């Protein structure tokens, strides 16, 4: 089966649009939690590689701020 980026994890093939309101909310919350974990891991990797964690944190914050600004236009 071909990869479909609009489907959920673990073989469940229901698209986001077909989820009910509660399922969509849970999915969004899960994606936000995953983003938080990814940023934390990225900061740990930056420290391991002796990069500026402050610069990396600021870049991530900028990306999240731009995301929030885009959400305001929806």
Give a short synopsis of this structure:
The protein is mainly alpha-helical and 74 residues long. The protein contains two helices and no strands. It is flat.
Provide structural commentary.
This protein has 74 residues and is mostly helical. It has one domain (16-72). Helices cover 65% and strands 0% of the residues. The protein contains 2 helices and no strands. It has helices at 21-48, 53-72. It is flat, with a radius of gyration of 16 Å. The termini are far apart. The model has no long low-confidence stretch (mean pLDDT 90).
Task: Based on the model shown, name its key terms.
2 helices, flat, 0% strand, single chain, 74 residues, mainly alpha
Number of domains: 1
Largest sheet: none
State the separation between the terminal residues, measured CA to CA.
33 Å
- Low-confidence runs of at least 5 consecutive residues: none
Beta content comes to under 5%
User: What best-fitting shape do the alpha-carbon axes yield?
Assistant: flat
Rg, rounded, reads 16 Å
In which range does the helix fraction lie?
55-70%
What topology does this entry show?
Layout: H1 21-48, H2 53-72
Helix pairs in contact: 1-2
């Amino acid at each position: 089966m071909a990869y479909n980026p609009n489907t959920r994890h673990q073989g469940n093939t229901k698209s986001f649009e077909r989820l009910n309101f509660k399922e969509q909310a849970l999915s969004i919350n899960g994606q936000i939690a995953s983003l938080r974990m990814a940023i934390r891991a990225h900061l740990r990797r930056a420290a391991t590689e002796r990069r500026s964690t402050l610069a990396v944190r600021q870049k991530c914050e900028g990306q999240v701020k731009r995301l929030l600004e885009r959400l305001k236009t929806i």
